[in-house]
């Protein structure tokens, strides 16, 4: 029956009606889902907003309420250290006044003893400060004095007769509690704010009450913070206690009222703000008593038929406070825009429906085109022209054929578009994933930078003061040993930090090779000297052996090679109890896949009982080759490639060995073997880092081990042979003992927010006679620099108030600032930060922890300071003896042309290092002339030297 009816319907109707029904269904479903999702989004957004606001308020409260107790604790510490006495309160006055100056939200801070004496420093919002005094000797009268800028008493402001502080409710409350606590909230008599006192009783060593410390906190600052929070468009935040008393609110309403000339607290249900009052009444009706609110509550209620969203969060600080944080926001703040968007969506849906109907009509006409148009369209489609249509007005078989053909063409076109859309979507997803990975990597780098900064700052003080104390001649051997332990422990901790950072750099692909021409023999000898004492302490044999063909001078990354060997030797000596450890080095001139054993010279390891165990004993070793990377291609030219070869290293011990089942995870980060765990030492980072370094240097690392017999680590690295002339000579280490005479007085400014870091630099520089000043932040540094004009500033880069970057930029943008050298001190290890620091205007960059020799070298380079050393050489003696001799152009005539040209170039470039080097070269030819030149340079007589050089050239 239905089919007969459909057969009678026109083809256009059959095509259009189903199409319209589908569009209507799709539009209705989309509209409904849009409305439901909008409602869900409102609830989620409101919940997230209120959670965020309540948590921010809670965090601010924790910080805000912690400060008064911290102030009391500093006063208590001063009493315990004997800096302030409870029986002598006169010495407290300026100390208390200074505390209220430092904390603008502290109304007053006070101290009272059991004798009835009382002192407090008070600060009003108009900026005036007073000292309040009660003394038993004056009959327990309360005197309030104005103060001058030095904190001294001036005029009497108020006198209250017979005021016994011991009878005050706050004093009694502190005594009753016996521990840090709070007073009740009360309204200030002088200020338009609520106040709450943080109380701290003071007891003697025999637990006798000596008095009470107090710090009064202003709650109006809390109201300002709440007012700064944006909770929707008309939401509110307020804080109440468990009795419903309003303590702070985000509205302009004050949390107290004046009645009969007296300021009184009031309950939040009595608020003049209708929204606040309605919220309070709902809470009371919902819980009857506010004490029943034990956890965070998310509620809903209505005001005049409009839905309101409410969040209540209990707050306790562990010292007696029990408050409620209330956040309330109308749902309309969120739904207004969403409702408007919903209306817009409905209109767009109707518009889409109208467009769809029109398209359906046109489609029906298009399907009924004649057969000739069908043939033409088929040919065009075969050529790839997918937008062809077939026009036909016939309703017979030809019309059906045209309809089928058009449908096929449309489906093909849609398939290609869908495929193209999927490609675009997948590309977008990959881009998002890449962005997330980059964000995560950046977050990791930021965390490591912060961690390094926080750990290296105290390490700088530990290692720095240890260096200073080791030079003391008055310390007993026992104390010298203790200092040595502190220093070695600090170095160990620094090594652990560097290991974690090295691993992070390796994982992020930021580790690079720093090639340097080195003396390989000297590096091996240094390592042997370093570990010989440790081996002797354990009665172990430590032997370094290298085959004759190993060259002495090579080019490689010496720091990474040294770290690899140190990690392996540390492990071997740590776990070996008898026998010994051997290090073997050989040259591998052919491919790495050949048998290396023919190139190795094995060394027998002597045991404690003088029996020998061959290093190549016939044991069933478990073999593990962890490195599978290919040989790294070097970027040297053909001549360097011809001299490139591999060095083969082995570190073998007679320790407990490693079990076969542990070898698979041996080179995993933070993984330790059973022996390592039993020793309760190490972090499990040494071997992973060593293997990564070996791979970065073009080699492989493997390990052979047998339980109870020992372990043998083997690795190769790619190096280049160099000439001895390319190696930098090692400069002897000399301790600075004084400044050279006849130098002007150098002014040095030390800027660091850490007192220990400033004290360390002062300890280093003050004994040499430098003029020193300190600053705790960039703002203080700018003020001191402007008035004092130091020659050099040691600038920490991370500080409160104003950091080192901003301070440096300010100084260097001035003409006067160009004459001041600024050297950055930072605990960051990121190479990226070096470029940021130098771009800010710093002249140099130094990491913490630093050595004192680095400090002296930097000052010599940037401001030309010269020193006397423990073993002064000829340069110092001649500089003192011949410094005042007059100099003429004849003196330069006797010197070689190359030396004179180098000196002139160095002066023109203001390169202090090159100037000193040139003078030392001249000193070898003529010590007297060199001393005279040094004296001119010291007195900034550069023009005089250049003039004499010019006269020499003209005389020739």
What descriptors fit this protein?
956 residues; nine-stranded antiparallel β-sheet; 27 helices; alpha+beta
Mind explaining what this structure looks like?
With 956 residues, the protein is an alpha+beta fold. The protein is 47% helix and 20% strand. It has 27 helices and 33 strands. The strands form 7 sheets. Strands 1, 2, 3, 4, 5, 6, 7, 8 and 9 form a 9-stranded antiparallel beta sheet that branches. Strands 17, 18, 19, 20, 23, 24, 25 and 26 form an 8-stranded mixed beta sheet that branches. It has a 5-stranded antiparallel beta sheet with strand order 11-10-16-15-14. Strand 21 and strand 22 form a beta hairpin. The longest helix is centred in the middle third of the chain and has 74 residues. The chain starts with a helix and ends with a helix. About 7% of the residues have low confidence.
